[in-house]
Structures are given as structure tokens and as C-alpha cells.
Write a structure and sequence with these properties.
Elements: H1 2-9, E1 14-15, E2 18-19, E3 22-26, E4 29-30, H2 37-52, E5 63-66, H3 68-76, H4 85-100, E6 103-104, E7 110-111, E8 113-119, E9 130-133, H5 139-147, H6 150-171, H7 183-198, H8 208-226, H9 234-248, H10 252-261, E10 269-275, E11 286-291, E12 303-308, H11 313-317, E13 323-324, H12 340-343, H13 345-362, E14 366-373, E15 376-384, H14 389-401, H15 407-412, H16 419-422, E16 426-427, H17 429-433, E17 439-440, E18 442-445, E19 448-454, H18 457-465, E20 470-474, H19 482-487, E21 490-493, H20 501-509, E22 512-515, E23 521-522, E24 526-528, E25 534-536, E26 540-544, E27 549-552, E28 557-558, H21 566-578, E29 582-586, H22 590-599, E30 604-608, H23 619-630, H24 634-659, E31 664-667, H25 681-691, H26 695-703, H27 717-722, H28 724-743, E32 750-754, H29 760-781, E33 789-794, H30 797-801, H31 803-809, E34 812-816, H32 817-825, H33 836-841, H34 858-872, E35 877-881, H35 888-896, E36 901-904, H36 909-928
Parallel strand pairs: 6-7, 19-20, 20-21, 21-22, 29-30, 29-36, 30-31, 31-32, 32-33, 33-34, 34-35, 35-36
Antiparallel strand pairs: 1-2, 3-4, 3-5, 5-10, 8-9, 8-10, 11-12, 11-14, 12-13, 14-15, 16-28, 17-27, 18-22, 19-26, 23-24, 24-25, 26-27
Helix pairs in contact: 5-6, 6-7, 6-8, 6-9, 7-8, 14-21, 21-36, 22-24, 23-24, 24-28, 25-26, 28-29, 29-31, 31-34, 35-36
Bound molecules: adenosine-5'-diphosphate and magnesium ion (MG) (2 copies).
Amino acid sequence: MAKKKAKKASGPAKKGKSIKYVYSFGGGKADGNESMKNLLGGKGANLAEMAGHKDLRLPVPPGFTITTEVCIDYLAAKRTYPKQLKVQVDTALATVEKLMGKKFGDASNPLLVSVRSGARKSMPGMMDTVLNVGLNDVTIKGLIEKTKNERFAWDSYRRLIMMYSDVVMEKAEGIEPKNGKGIRKTLDERLGEVKKQKGYKLDTDLTVADLKQLVADFKAKVREVLGKPFPENPQDQLWGGIGAVFMSWNGKRAIDYRRIEKIPDEWGTAVNVQSMVFGNMGDDSATGVAFTRNPGNGDPRFYGEYLVNAQGEDVVAGIRTPAPINEASKNDQSRDLPALEKTMPKCYNQLFDIQKRLEKHYKDMQDIEFTIEQGTLYMLQCRIGKRNGTAAVKIAMDMFREKLIDSDTALSRVAPMQLVELLLPMVDPKAEAATKAIGKGLPAGPGAAKGRAVFTSEDAAAWASRGEKVILVREETSPEDVDGMHKAQAILTSKGGMTSHAALVARGWGKCCVVGCEGLEVEAKEFKTKSGEVVHEGDWITVNGTKGLVYRGELNLVNPDLEHNATYVELISLCNKTRKINIRTNADTPKDTAQAVKFGAEGIGLFRTEHMFYGEGSDKPLFLLRKMIMSKTPQERRNALSELEPFVKRDIKATMEVLNGLPVTIRLLDPPLHEFVPHSEDKLAALAQELGINLAEVKKRGDSLKENNPMLGHRGVRLGVTYPEVSEMQIRAILEAAGELIKEGKKAYPEIMIPVTGTVNEIIDQKKIVDKIYAEVCKSLGLSKIPYLYGTMIEIPRAALTANKMAEVAEFFSFGTNDLTQMGFGFSRDDIGSFLPDYLEKKILKDDPFQTIDQEGIGELIRFGIDRGRSTRAKLKIGICGEHGGDPDSVKFCHRVGMNYVSCSPFRIPIAILAAAQAVIEDKRAKKK
Ligand code: ADP
Ligand code: MG
Ligand code: MG
């Protein structure tokens, strides 16, 4: 403890002897500003900026922020506060009272406050907020007297009891509600009962008498269920609220969200205490959420939703259908509802002006919360708006064209993985035209998905863990559902608008999502459509998140047409101007190659010859390969090989033709031969007949190829050493394919790559074969030369360690990071499932090293290999193949260590291109610092 204090005292927050724990804002001033997110959280820092920055000074209700440091201390010190805090809070509260002309806890003129959480990075809906703090049986009288609005006062009171009992008395206390039904739900059901009894449709139909009764009922229920009364003392309420926000940092849903988003546990949350403004004071009051541009598609027009006579979270909770703020915000659900620009034009114009200023000030799309109290507009929050991939690209490129940001900033604004969304499958329009949708809602997350309907987050997670594709169907989602939402292919809700929880979360993840699906009735294990059709748990459904449509069954999904997306094309060309590293693809067929070249691939980094023995059209070559494998004598093998060669040549030639002179790295046969031995009797019998031996003999030969540890066995170059004729055939096929193309007046540039090497002598051994065949092919084709390179994979640690020797013979290296990781860690890639989850859970490893390069360990092998390699061959061409080539962090790493290219699967190419450009930009920024 003493140690901690000593450290703190030297920190920047030091002021004389006391530490500043509380930062005030309001009345045109603020202690903090936007740059202090780490200390004040995102919400607090932006409230300060909006309230106090000289270019803004917006109408922000006054309040104060308690720092994130207090949160960390509070949680570490078993829920006790630093000594100085109480005084600082009292002082800040007094300032707010003065600005508002009200007093907290006062019987005749009470100040009410909200207690709001706010972490460094926004975690929408993850943390809890309590509104109307300070109301009790005494202060409500003063509130009624002052406002002359009894209904509003009782509405606020019942809301306080509901939120407070849920957030402070239950969740923060870690109380697990019995049979899963929390206090909020219990109280909500009570509210529903009253509405039903009285025949009301909306919350706003409740009368003063109803609300009074509800307050009494709520209090009794709270006492009954939680065994404690709702606290009447305003100070108890305030401190209860503050503690609860801090505690919610360690709540289950906050932790789940942090895991997914990789937010460190050490950040903590700030608490914002802010004087209340009321959107629930009648028809001249409202509350809403808006974005300076459309977060769903990037449309550069002000976009948002609002509710008349409502309080904050009503919009997000999806209790009523929110109305559009303007024409541009109308959707199928809200088309006929009155727009804010019509109902409250003065406030709308003011809001419009403010959002323009905010976007110009922050130079990015803003997500804003506002409330209108009896015709007066207040700003309650602004932050950088989450957006889906399509919107991210559009907004970045638009702002670049508008000269609001420069090209480096534009490129940094799109997360490489967001491009996945643009590559997302769509429902096949033909299939769609032939089917009738069973539901229509709002297009909250684009793309398409199909899966089996499940109805709880737990089921979604459980089914997904069995490898099932599921779609999570809910009435509405809440932060408790985050885990299941993450594991589902898509999310479908019957309630809620474009700013509902489901929509917000889906947008953040780029997940296919339809919300507010009209007329859908969601039950425990089924849902009923508007027309009365029933879809049961486990039934397949297809969701079109781009249009907001739901279909029964499995519809065909197709890929989008990116070439005609001008904004995307412009983004990629900007990346191409910026990046230094080349991008190649891993492809083994002309079709994949063509796709990859369309996406911008500059060659093939990995063409696996064994590919032609799998899948479509592989019957004949596979049979010949098997014949070769089962051969006993070199002569038998040669015969089989010469039959096989035309197939190998045909595939390579077709692919090189598509590449039109772009380089293609062709890897010689890599897998252990036993992988190709057939299992079925009839296949074995056919082989026996072909080879003129009996079945037992074939089986014997097959069995003799079995190995105890095939991944470390007779594979890669070892095959070529044992059976030189196998290498010969492949090398001949490659060089003949290239030579023939050249003779046809076309271009070809093969790079012959030897896999699984660990010593230079292996490379020398195979080089002799290459030299011999090269001479033969040139001669037979009458060519003086065929351009090619000769190189090796670097995937065995010893190869990296002796890279200087390897590079004396090899003209290029391709880091096979899958195997390098496997052998570097000693982790069998096929068996990690049984222990890697524990490693990640216990944080023994930060990431799965097979997904993103382990820069600290395997990365060192790579660095070392590159340095050593280039020490003997300065112009050594170096690249990477393997899954990591499409992982943004790994691409950036490859750029930093000086590789010439990365290679990844065709659909990862746009991601790699953007990551490569960002690597250059990050370099530049690091140098500036
Ligand atoms: P979240 O981080 O989940 O968005 P907030 O702290 O923003 O939570 O609060 C939830 C809702 O309560 C917001 O929509 C906001 O508009 C409303 N709210 C918060 N503080 C106040 C206040 N002082 N006056 C009126 N409404 C408020
Ligand atoms: Mg908010
Ligand atoms: Mg390998």
C-alpha cells in the first residue's frame, strides 16, 4: 500500500499533497479534455471537451468525473475509497448545485443526478448507468412542486427504483437471481401486468395513479426479493451508485466483452455524475441517439432516432419504435412516424448545427446522445461512432475527398478485418426472388448468413461448440447475450431499432443482423411469423442483413462484386500507392488464381502440387499417384510418374497462364506418402490389378508407409532425396509448362521451392536434379533459357539458424510459418485443441500462435533467418506463406522485418493490402515520435 502511494505521488495527477480524483465540467468550463481518456474514460473526457473546449461549449448538463484510478484502487482495496475522495466529490457536487440552482437531497428544490460509467474505450451497454439519483419520498414532493408535473416525477421515481435495485443492489452485489430472473425483469413484469390490466399499449399511457402504485409495488418487491429496502437517503443512493459502476467493471458481461474486444482488465472505468435533464416531461420533451453519418452504410447525412416523452435508455432498449430525426433516417419501420425536424424544428436545427461542429472538431464520425427537456436541447454524450466495414470505407474515403483528413488518416480509419464485410456473401438474388421472406425487419448488420434457429445465448454457444451453425433469435438482446451473439452466424430480434443493443453490437463486429422484425413472436423454443408460420429450434433459416429479410430454410449464398464498388477500388489504389511489401496469394487452381489477381494479388506465394490429388477432377491423377507410391522398383515408379506428369504440367501451365508473367512459387510434393494410400477395398483392388500384384501385397506396401509421427517423418525434401525420380517429374513438369508458354509467346515465371529443409545439403542435392532437368528441357524445347528461381521453405528451426548457408544455394526463402510455429513451439497443430484454450484462458499465451505470428519467439527465428540469409545473398527474395499471411498484425510484422511479400488466401488479399499500407503509415508515425 505504502509502495503504491509513493508511486502515485510521483504521478502527473499530483497537486500539492493531494491527488486529483474528481474533474468537473459544466457552465462553459471543464477541468479535463478529450485527450484524457485514460484517466477520465471516453465519456468523461468527451463530456469535458464538449462542455469546456472554446470551439464547442455545448449545452452539457454540469457534472463531474471520478477517475479510472479510483476504480482500480477501489477494486484492489476491497471496496474502499481513497480518503480524499469524499471531500472532492462534495466540492464538485456543490459546484453543480450552484450552476443548476438546485440542491442534492433538498426537500423543496432537489437536484437529481445520473451516475454513469465510462471506460477508456466505449463498451456499449456493458456497464451500468443509474438515472434520477436523489429521488425519494420527500424530494419527490419538491420535484412535483417545482415542475408541476406529477406524472413525470412518479415516472422518474419508478425508473430509479428499477435501475437502482438492478444495478446497485443486485448486480454489483454479485447476487445470482433465482431461476435466472433478475429484479429488473421482475419489476418489468409487474409493469407489464399493470399495462395489460388497464389495456395500455405504451409505457406513456400509464397515469399518475398507476405510477404511484407501481412505486409502492416496486419498493415492496425489492424488499421481498433482495431482503433490503430501497435506500431513501440521497447520499446513500449516490455512493451506492458510484460503487456499483466501479463493481460493474468486474461484472460477467463486462469481462466477456473485454475478452472478445481484447480490452485489458487493468484499465478500469470512470464514473460520471451529472445533473439530470428530463426527456420524460411531456410531449415537448424527448431523448435520442444520432450519428453524424449513417453508421450502416456511410451515407454522409445526419442520421438518428428519437422518442418523445422518454428517458435515455428507452431508445436503445427498443421498448417503443423510435421515430426518425429527419427524412434521411426513415426506414421501413419508422416511415410513418413524425420526424424531429418536423415536430421540434428549432431543437433539430440546433442539433444539426452541433453535430456539424462536432464532426469538424473531432474529424471523425460521431455518435451522439441528446435529450430535449421542454424544448431545450442538451448534449449527453459524444464519441467516435462505431460503424460496419462498408460504412468505414465510405466514411474514410469521403472525408479524405472532403479534405477533412489526409490519406494516411483515411487508411488508418479502416480496420483491415472490416474489409471482410465487403467480401461478405450475399443471399443469391435468384434464390431470393424464388422464395418469399417470412419476416422483414431492419438491416442492422450487412451480409448474409444461414444457420439453425436457437433462442438463448447459452444454446447458441453450446450448439456452436458442437460445430453447428446457428442464428440467435431473441425478442431483444441485452449485454448478457454477448457470448451467444458472438458465436452465432447472425442475430435476429423481434424488437428494437437501428440503435438497439443488438444493432450496436453487431455493427461493431460486422456481424449479419436483423432487428425489429415486424410481427415476429419469439417464444422459448420457437418463433411465430406475422403470417402465423412457426419456426422451431434447430430449423434452418437464412438472414439477409443487408435488406433486413428472413427466410425459412437454407438459401444459396454468393459473393459480392467488388470491382464495381468505386469507393473500395479507390481505397485499394490508395493502399497500393502507400504500401511497400508485395501481396501474393496461396492458390492451386486457375480459378482461385483469377479471383486473387482480381483482388490485387501480385503472384502466387504458394502453389501446392499435391492439391491436384484432392477434390474435383482428382480421380485420375490420384490413381496414378497411388500407383507411383505403391511401386516397388524405380522402374515401376518411373512408369507411373511419366503417366502422371501430363496432369501436373497441365495444372501448372493453366495457372501460369492466368498469372501472365507474375511469379508463382511452386512447392514440390510435401505431405507424407501414407496420406494418399487408399482405405477402401475396391480402390486397393483396382491398384492391385493395375500393378499386377495381389491385394495382400498392395496392403502390405501401403502399411509399410505408416509412420509413428508422420509430420516429422518421411515428407517434403526427404521424399525427393529418397525418390529423386519424384522430384525429377515435378521439376520437368514445371519447366516444360513454363517453356511451352514461352514458346507460345506468353509469359511464365516459376519459382521452384523445396519444402521441409533443415540443411543446405538437402537443397544442394535437389539442385543437381534441377540443373540436369533444366538442361534437358531447354534442349528438347529448343530454348536457350527458361527464367526461374530456385529456393526453399524455411519452416524447420534449423533452417532459420543456418540461413546463411541455405542462402548460398537458395535464391529465395519462403517462411512456412505454420510448420515453423509447430516446430518452434513443439505444438502439434492438429492437437492444440486440447490445451490451447487453457493457455489463452490463463494468459500463458496472449494469442493463438497459429493465427498471429508469435513475434517474440517465432518472430525472432524469422528475423534471424532474414539477417543471416541476406548476409550471404544480399538480394535474397523473402516471403511468407501460411495462414499468417492474411493476419493484419502478422502482415505488419513481415513488413517491419523486411520481407518482400506476404502470401495469403484469395479472400484475405484486400485485408493484407490494407494492413501492408498501414504498416508503412505506422512506421512513419513511429519515426516522427
Ligand atoms: P451507456 O454508456 O450505456 O450509453 P449512458 O451513461 O450514456 O450509458 O446512459 C444511458 C442513457 O441515459 C443515455 O442514453 C443517456 O442519454 C441517459 N442519461 C445519462 N445521463 C443523463 C442525464 N444526466 N440526464 C438525462 N439523461 C441521461
Ligand atoms: Mg451512452
Ligand atoms: Mg509446411
